[in-house]
């Protein structure tokens, strides 16, 4: 069943952190959970894992009510919080053994997650001697020890260098085949690389819940064009679907349109009407990062 949230709200005193949130995540989905700082993402994840109680509404993981049965839910859930809590004076295997005893996992399972998360090269080290990337691997290995059906990851790639980021991304993709993954991140490339659906929070409200493919269609079209002479800004005003015009230099312009339809033909007609030639024209799609900023800035 995955995750089900119904009319969930959370108050901290007079401050409302979550406002009547409802959504459903089916088993096997990889969800990108986005929002600016203070949007309520971490609060939602803590409620889903049983660390916080909602003020109103309810949440279910694999059909189990989180508020009524938090221990049962935690047995089905793997959680990597934003600030990965590790005992730095422990060796990797020692730390995993400590958690395996809590979950009553076998030593064989410890070896399986070590291999799955690529910890073998550093297995003889204490956690305090590990790089940020390997510390995140230890956190993910801990979350995977009891073979959970749902994996909740809060900013798993924050602070990683480009190589470490790719390694953790590949690791998450490799374990997504048979698990529901709820992934909070500020890195838009991670969402595009790993997620099938996107939830976007802003100021405690859920403002977007759509498949990633649908968001790709909603993003604006951007065309950068260079003419052989300058054109007055008024000449662009009659272009259909035009959102904005940015003059880069005397003859170069960056045009933004709110349509998927190729606007190259319209720009060609514009050049003829102004008795000039197009020296270059390049088309791009608005990035997910631009789309995110646009919808969360209002």
Automatic annotation (TrEMBL):
Residue ranges occupied by any ABC transporter domain in the UniProt entry: 3-228
Pfam families, sorted: ABC_tran
Keywords: ATP-binding, Nucleotide-binding, Transport
PROSITE patterns linked to this entry: ABC_TRANSPORTER_2 (PS50893)
Coiled-coil spans in chain: none
SMART domains named among the record's database cross-references: AAA
InterPro entries per record: AAA+_ATPase, ABC_transporter-like_ATP-bd, Motility-assoc_ABC_GldA, P-loop_NTPase
MF GO annotations: ATP binding
Domain of life, source organism: Bacteria
NCBIfam families xref list: GldA_ABC_ATP (TIGR03522)
Family: Belongs to the ABC transporter superfamily.
Name recorded for this polypeptide: Gliding motility-associated ABC transporter ATP-binding subunit GldA
Native organism: Mesonia sediminis
Gene transcribed to yield this protein: gldA
